[in-house]
Design brief:
The longest helix is centred in the first third of the chain and has 23 residues, at 30-52. The protein has helices at 30-52, 54-59, 64-77, 80-93, 97-104, 106-112, 196-199, 210-220, 224-232, 293-306, 313-320, 379-383, and strands at 5-10, 13-18, 21-28, 123-129, 135-145, 155-161, 168-173, 176-184, 189-194, 240-246, 249-256, 260-264, 270-273, 347-355, 360-365, 372-378. The protein is globular, with a radius of gyration of 19 Å. A hairpin with a 5-residue loop joins strand 4 and strand 5. The model has no long low-confidence stretch (mean pLDDT 95). The protein is α+β, with helices and mostly antiparallel strands and 384 residues long.
């Protein structure tokens, strides 16, 4: 296991670096953790803002009215804990609330403006039970997105709140606080995939942000059953797929902003999540995407079947290393899902593998210009 390098401290918060990944470890109230995050991450946040948000403002596509509307939408509808985190960020960065919020909700705002072809072309694989030697749950996940997001570090934020909510860790980018990949101290895991190609690209601005709400789900739900009930009660503001797991197994929520949600239960002790809705109850055909969703689904379903009974963290990393394309752009025979470079519409920004029962986490960036090999993080140790 690589050694964490301490970069900076702010009150009870510490920023570590590990093989190029930024790891802010925050502890205290949400207001204090927001202050810690802002103090530790301000420079990285500025780089992300200049890359993701500023061009829209400078071109006039993002108007002052947009910024006011979307800031009010987020700030007035998030939970008190998230509001206080925003307050702490504003104080420690010296940024306006609008600047803080527009960076945080950049993805959802981009979908609203129809500037993003998809939320991400992601792939997740889950195995447990008779697919694993020990019966435990193992998850592999690719976050596929734009090359520009490689210009600032992938961030693993480790939260140790003192308000009674659960310790958790989440993967994202500087100032973009939504838990795109996350696990809490009870072993509840989820990751987010784009579902707009199936569920519609309409964004409901008269609903609270789904991405904001995920912060509460990871902080409050102790089991996959509890998470399922919460999701069954929610109306999505965007169309997305949320793959969920705990120590007992896994499933997938396919959520349409227009037509509600469906829970996809696996037929075996393994399944694959991509960007196409796979639950037949929708009554629609399975649809390919520009990011080759169905090809990735078929590849990884076959790879899991070939490795039935053998899946553990190491084998999961092996499967996630398998590429979708050959160097010449043709599909790899018996291939996988990973795209180190852009060969369709996006590339794999980062990869994670999670040993759910042991709370062990591995991260990788496969792009050759920003390469970071599999890097292990012991979440139990960081939460202690």
């Amino acid at each position: 296991m690589s050694t964490l390098t301490k970069i900076a401290e702010a009150d009870k918060g510490t920023l570590f670096e590990l093989n190029g990944f930024a790891i802010p470890v925050l502890a205290s109230s949400y207001y204090e953790m927001g202050k810690q995050y802002g103090s530790l991450m301000k420079d990285h946040m500025q780089t992300a803002y200049d890359t993701v948000v500023a061009p829209g403002i400078e071109s006039g596509k993002t108007t002052p009215e947009d910024m006011t509307t979307w800031t009010n939408r987020s700030y007035t509808t998030v939970s008190t804990r998230c509001k206080r985190f925003y307050d702490g960020l504003v104080e420690s960065t010296g940024w306006s609330l609008e600047k803080v919020v527009m960076l945080d909700i950049a993805m959802e705002f981009g979908i609203f403006q129809s500037t993003l072809h998809s939320f991400a072309g992601c792939t997740s694989i889950f195995s447990w039970g008779d697919f694993t030697p020990d019966g435990q749950v193992y998850v592999g996940r690719n976050q596929d997105w734009f090359p520009s997001y490689l210009e600032f570090p992938t961030v693993i934020t480790v939260m140790k709140p003192t308000d009674g909510s659960y310790r958790h860790a989440k993967v994202g980018w500087p100032g973009m606080l939504a838990p795109m990949t996350a696990i809490n101290e009870h072993g509840v895991y989820f990751d987010v995939h784009d579902g707009s190609s199936m569920g519609g690209s309409v964004v409901y601005i008269d609903r609270s942000s789904t991405l904001n709400a995920l912060n509460d789900l990871i902080a409050e739900t102790p089991t996959m059953e509890a998470l399922t009930r919460r999701l069954n009660s929610a109306a999505a503001s965007i169309s997305y797929i949320l793959n969920i797991a705990d120590e007992t197994g896994a499933a997938s929520f396919e959520c349409s902003a227009l037509a509600g949600s469906r829970l996809r239960q696996p037929a075996e002790s393994a399944f694959v999540g991509v960007n196409s809705f796979m639950n037949p109850d929708w009554g629609i055909h399975q649809r390919e995407t520009a990011s080759n969703s169905l090809r990735r689904f078929a590849n990884m379903t076959a790879r899991l079947a070939e490795n039935k009974g053998l899946m553990n963290a190491a084998r999961t990393r092996d499967l996630m290393d398998m590429r979708l394309f050959n160097e010449d752009g043709t599909f790899a025979e018996n291939g996988g899902s990973t795209k180190p470079t852009v060969q369709d519409v996006d590339l794999t920004n980062y990869q994670t593998v999670t040993d759910v029962s042991q709370r062990q986490f591995w991260m990788k960036i496969p792009n050759p210009d920003h390469f970071a090999d599999w890097t292990q993080l012991d979440l139990k140790a960081l939460w202690s």
